[in-house]
Amino acid sequence: MFWPPPSHTIDLHGMTVLEAASAAEKFLRAQRKARAGQVVRLVTGRGRSGGGAPIRTRVRTLLRNLGEQGDVVREFELETSEGSFLVRLGG
Fold this sequence. Notes:
Layout: E1 8-11, H1 17-34, E2 39-43, H2 54-69, E3 73-78, E4 84-89
Parallel strand pairs: 1-2
Antiparallel strand pairs: 2-4, 3-4
Helix pairs in contact: 1-2
């Protein structure tokens, strides 16, 4: 899959899981309205060693749910670094 450079990025570091999920959804919905069909990046971090990655896990669930609805998220992919997602917005 070819992914062009993201047009905008949100960094969710330092947020709680609930804050990050809320901020990610608001960001995606706003970007979808402003930039339908574009690619954006959500930086979640990889989690602490041994501590899992709760923000990444919650954001992945959000992306799946929004993808199933089909209007906000067309597709997404965890980047090689495993600390961020590329998201193609619905259009």
